[in-house]
Amino acid sequence: DSGVTQTPKHLITATGQRVTLRCSPRSGDLSVYWYQQSLDQGLQFLIQYYNGEERAKGNILERFSAQQFPDLHSELNLSSLELGDSALYFCASSPQTGNTEAFFGQGTRLTVV
Amino acid sequence: GENVEQHPSTLSVQEGDSAVIKCTYSDSASNYFPWYKQELGKGPQLIIDIRSNVGEKKDQRIAVTLNKTAKHFSLHITETQPEDSAVYFCAASRGGLTFGKGTHLIIQP
């Protein structure tokens, strides 16, 4: 158990809908990262937050957004969902930002039908 | 941005033999190189990492080597066991992790 908690574990929704994925980082970790994992693209970095502030952006679509709250949990919002958004979404946390160990949650499997 | 290439995509070895997975990276400013193991239905798990001021690091049956000049790093697993079967990912970082596409390691009994 990495100490990173993601909910829900599974999510099935229809095209055009909006969903929110939640992540609770390890106790004391200030950084939260979101990744998308699909079969053909591997692990793609979406976005990083550090202590409530956006720190880095990767290949995140404009239909996606995230935030980190004062208690350090984070939410990833996916809207106007398309079939191609079906993937595993992982959250990872680390104590600081920069080059440091990142610990992953178990992921949320999103299926868009 | 950073680009990480990982080879092979699938590796099948006999139990007890060694396995080697290789990665190259493009950004010479990257200075942190972790390896993750992902089992079916689980999130990636950090198994070993190396920083750019070190050439080699070992932890029991697992070792990682780094050649900064050539921008190569490799994972070595010795005396492989059935529980080593998984997908392994390398990554390079200068502030954010860029992952390779993964190697499916199969340990044949």
Describe this structure in words.
The complex is a heterodimer of chains A (113) and B (109). Chain A contains no helices and eleven strands. By secondary structure, chain A is mainly beta. In chain A, the strands form two sheets. In chain A, strands 2, 4, 5, 6, 9, 10 and 11 form a seven-stranded mixed β-sheet that branches. Chain A has a four-stranded antiparallel β-sheet with strand order 1-3-8-7, with no helix packed on it. Chain A is globular and about 35 Å long. Chain B is 0% helix and 58% strand. In chain B, strands 2, 4, 5, 9, 10 and 11 form a six-stranded mixed β-sheet that branches. In chain B, a hairpin with a 2-residue loop joins strand 6 and strand 7. Chain B starts with a strand and ends with a strand. The mean pLDDT of chain B is 94. Classes of the chains: A mainly beta (113), B mainly beta (109). At the A-B interface, strand 5 and strand 10 of A face strand 4, strand 5 and strand 10 of B.
What portion of residues of chain A is helical? under 10%
Per DSSP, what share of the residues of chain B sits in E-state strands of 2 or more residues? over 45%
Structural class of chain B: mainly beta
Helix-strand sequence of chain B: EEEEEEEEEEE
Give the CA-based shape of chain B. globular
Averaged pLDDT of chain A:
93
Distance between the termini of chain A: 31 Å
Number of strands of chain A: 11
H and E string of chain A: EEEEEEEEEEE
Compact overview of the structure:
The complex is a heterodimer of chains A (113) and B (109). In chain A, 0% of the residues lie in helices and 53% in strands.
List keywords for this structure.
heterodimer; A: 113 residues; mainly beta; 7-stranded mixed beta sheet; 4-stranded antiparallel beta sheet; B: 109 residues; 6-stranded mixed beta sheet; 5-stranded antiparallel beta sheet; 0% helix; globular
Write the topology of this structure.
The complex is a heterodimer of chains A (113) and B (109).
Chain A (H helix, E strand, L loop, with lengths): L4 E3 L2 E4 L5 E6 L6 E8 L3 E9 L2 E5 L6 E5 L5 E5 L8 E8 L8 E2 L3 E5 L1
Parallel strand pairs in A: 2-11
Antiparallel strand pairs in A: 1-3, 3-8, 4-5, 4-9, 5-6, 7-8, 9-10, 9-11
Chain B lengths: L3 E4 L2 E5 L4 E7 L6 E7 L6 E7 L4 E4 L2 E6 L4 E6 L8 E8 L3 E3 L3 E6 L1
Parallel strand pairs in B: 2-11
Antiparallel strand pairs in B: 1-3, 3-8, 4-5, 4-9, 6-7, 7-8, 9-10, 9-11
